[in-house]
Each structure stands twice: as structure tokens, then as C-alpha cells.
Amino acid sequence: MLVVDKDTFEPEVLKAEGIVFVDFFGDGCVPCQALLPHVEKFAEKYSDKIKFTKLNTTKARRLAISQKILGLPVMAIYKNGEKIEELVKEDATPERIEEMIKKYAFE
């Protein structure tokens, strides 16, 4: 998984062609840390179809707000730079995350 920050988010996500998965997480977010091994497994499994990135919102607060990230965890799919789907908080379960990834990996 590619770690993005305030300097690399635009070129790696917003200006990227195709599908990009973004894991918005925070340093003190326990659910985020619990989901990380699952997300990393999905990144290995689907990396040939989708670009996987993660953004530490603790270190990029303004960027997170600009992307309308108001709570954590958030898993989002961007297509050609536009956010087209996201899972927020309790909706971000391993099963739902993989369903979302599969939806765009095989379209």
C-alpha cells in the first residue's frame, strides 16, 4: 500500500487514472488499526486491478476535511480523481470493504 500525505495525495489519488482505494485512518483510531490487516490483505489480492493508498488524517487534517472526512474509519474509492463511494465508521467492516473493492476491481 502506498502511503500518501498532503503533498502526494493530489498526484497519487486526485490526478490518477483508474480506480484508487484510500484508507483514511488516524493514529488513535482503534477501529482503523483493527481494519488495517484486512485492508493490507485486500491490497495484495487486488493490487493488479486497483491502486491502494492510505492517508494518516492525524498528520493531514486539512486535507481530510477537504475530502469531507468527518469521522473514522473511512474507506473510499476514487475513479479518475473523483470520490465515487465510501464506507464510514461502522459500515467499514472487512466484508463490506471487500464487496466495495470487488465491485470496482471487475467492472
UniProtKB/TrEMBL annotation:
InterPro entries: Thioredoxin, Thioredoxin-like_sf, Thioredoxin_CS, Thioredoxin_domain. Residues 1-106 form the Thioredoxin domain. Gene3D superfamilies: Glutaredoxin. It comes from the Bacteria. SUPFAM superfamilies: Thioredoxin-like (SSF52833). The keyword Disulfide bond applies. It holds the Pfam family Thioredoxin. Keywords: Disulfide bond, Electron transport, Redox-active center, Transport. Belongs to the thioredoxin family. This is Thioredoxin. The lineage of its organism: Bacteria, Bacillati, Bacillota, Clostridia, Lachnospirales.
